[in-house]
Inverse folding.
């Protein structure tokens, strides 16, 4: 169950970064990261009362997933520009 939740969070992180990059064009990385984090936490596939608890328990994992998604997005942008 935990592995499935982590897999869902990884997918949410990718979606969140895509949304943040396309919505907040020109804004700082911090604003984009904050938006991505809010997106992931609000869409974690657990019952609403438990979202904050799960987000706190998996905070480090969520942060890492978002960082990896941003790195992937940066490398894709660099590949397209070349």
């Amino acid at each position: 169950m935990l592995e499935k939740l982590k897999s869902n969070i990884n997918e949410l992180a990718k979606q969140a970064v895509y949304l943040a990059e396309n919505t907040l064009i020109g804004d700082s990385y911090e604003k984009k990261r904050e938006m991505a984090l809010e997106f992931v936490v609000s869409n974690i596939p657990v019952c609403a009362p438990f979202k904050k608890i799960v987000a706190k328990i998996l905070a480090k994992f969520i942060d890492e997933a978002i960082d990896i998604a941003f790195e992937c997005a940066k490398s894709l942008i660099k590949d397209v520009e070349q």
Remarks:
- The helical segments are 2-23, 29-42, 51-57, 59-81.
